[in-house]
Amino acid sequence: MQTNAVAVLPFKLIAVAVGDEYLGIGMADAFIVSLSKIGDLQVRPTASVVPFAMSGANPIGAGRELKVEAILDGKIHQSGDNLRVSLQLIRVADGSLLWAEKFDGTMSGIFQLEDEISASIAQKLRRNLDENTLRLLTTRGTKLLAAYQAFLKARFYFHQGSPEEYQKSKASYEEAIRLDPNYAQAYAGLADVYILEVIFGFRRPQDAFAQVKEAVTKAVELDSTSAEVYAAHAHFNICFNRDLAEAGRSARKAVELNPYSANAHNLLGQSLMFRGFYGEAETALKQALEIDPLGFWHSCILTICYFLWRKYEQAIAQSLTTTAINPKLFAETIKRCWSLTELGRHAEA
């Protein structure tokens, strides 16, 4: 089957042991990262699918909102060390079942289980994958099981988004790094937590600068083939180092390594926007939204791009799009007021 866009919903947990609750989001996130390595396949990012798990949404409805052709839904059943992962791939257009399979493995053998599942899903989505792509699907940043489990927990907490969960995410990333000091993706993930803590006002920039710089520098030193690593480096240079040219180089490298990374296109757009290259920034940000239609952050940045470009009508329209994606973003109302004021429509503002 030839599917151009797919979403992996966080897996439902059936009788999972206390402390292993991270598996539902953690394993789904691992498959999202893995499938994203298929060059011509759009895979919706984890941040966009997590809300559907929290709301208990119907998979077909979720697929329509995510604007994908197929949705991968699954369940995890745990009994001691034993795991059973039951998956089904569903066509969103008519709800028909494209493929279903059960996979048995163990927590201690989770690498082998994930590799088997990744290869099986990929070969259903793309029948003629070459050996190099199949090898990339099963490449992860560590060979140490305990470090990988800590990494999955960190990703799980990261996507909860509260100050308390960010603290847990940091602790888990730090544990992964303690267990495997050469785990580049853990350093990149740790940098992402630090950056978002500052963006959301949980920490002051001056308190986080040295830690972010150390984490992203180490990540790049360890792995020059990871889009996530270069994205973290770009984010650091935009938010902290203010080296927009370097941010642009890192973001372009991230896009080159993973053309379907919405985050990489977003960061490329930001690096261009803040240097005044608004047309190129618009292209990059629209690409991010095409890959991740529910990514309100991409729409937020595109609104700012239009405002700085003095395209105020487009800024208002884009801001309304952002509000439709996430009605809780009160800052979008403020942005619309800015544009209305610039247009002289003071009463509306």
- Give the second-level CATH assignment, the architecture of the largest domain: Alpha Horseshoe
Total count of helical runs of at least 4 residues: 16
CATH level-3 fold name of the largest domain: Serine Threonine Protein Phosphatase 5, Tetratricopeptide repeat
Q: Determine Rg (CA atoms, Å).
A: 20 Å
Structural class: alpha/beta
Supply the CATH superfamily name of the largest domain. Tetratricopeptide repeat domain
Helicity, as a percent range: 55-70%
Tell me which oligomeric state these chains represent. single chain
Largest sheet: 6 strands, mixed
Order of helices and strands: EEHEHHEEEHHHHHHHHHHHHH
- Number of domains in the coordinates? 2
Number of strands: 6
State the low-pLDDT regions, or none.
none
| Termini Cα gap | 50 Å
Give average pLDDT, whole number. 91
CATH class type of the largest domain: Mainly Alpha
β-sheet strand percentage: 5-15%
Q: What does the overall shape look like?
A: globular
Structure commentary:
By secondary structure, the chain is α/β, with parallel strands linked by helices. It folds into two domains: 5-137, TolB, N-terminal domain (Rossmann fold); 145-342, Alpha Horseshoe (Serine Threonine Protein Phosphatase 5, Tetratricopeptide repeat). The chain is built from 16 helices and six strands. Strands 1, 2, 3, 4, 5 and 6 form a six-stranded mixed β-sheet that branches. The longest helix is centred in the middle third of the chain and has 18 residues, at 205-222. It is globular. The mean pLDDT is 91.
